[in-house]
Each structure stands twice: as C-alpha cells, then as structure tokens.
Amino acid sequence: MFDKVRVPILGLVENMSCFICPHCNRASFIFGKEGARQMAAKKDLKLIGEYHRVVVSSPGSVVSKAYEDLAQNVVNGLKELHDNPENEIQMKLNVPHSS
Hints:
By secondary structure, the protein is α+β, with helices and mostly antiparallel strands. The protein has one domain. Helix content is 35%, strand content 13%. It has helices spanning 2-5, 35-43, 62-83, and strands at 12-15, 19-20, 27-28, 47-51. The strands form two sheets. A two-stranded parallel sheet has the order 1-4. Strands 2-3 form a two-stranded antiparallel ribbon. Strand 2 and strand 3 form a beta hairpin. It starts with a helix and ends in a 16-residue tail after the last helix.
C-alpha cells in the first residue's frame, strides 16, 4: 500500500517475533521465525528491529533490551533522513482539477 501512495518507509519492525517463557526464558516462535527479515530483504528495506511483549517490570531483561535497540534504530534512521534530505522521496499529490 505504501508503495502505491509513495510514502517513504524507514524500515520494518517485527512485533511479537517470539514468546519468551517467563519461567524458563526459552523463546518460542509462534508465528514462524525471521518473517520480517525475509520481507525486508524481499522489499529492499531495513529491518529496524524485532521485539516481543515488553515487560515494564524487568527493565534489564532481554525483551527490554530488544525494545531499546528498536527505538534507537528508529532514532538513527530518522536522523539519517534529517541529515541527508537529498535521499528523501519527493511526494506528489495527484489531485484532479475541477473545470
């Protein structure tokens, strides 16, 4: 859809990349593994991050670290767009003219 309306895409984020058992910390890939990575490669996009359910009560956990990495990747991508405006996609509106 974004291709058709020419909206610039910073990259993909995989939500619910896996479920981590709160008892044994084992990851289960309920929806398959690396789906976003494969889609990013197919569409020639960056994979910004893969994250699981964020546990606020465990700020030092693997899940929280993945979320922090994802957020930092978004910040870095936006900074890159800001610092290099020539790389931005020029958007044109296709508005019919009334007679």
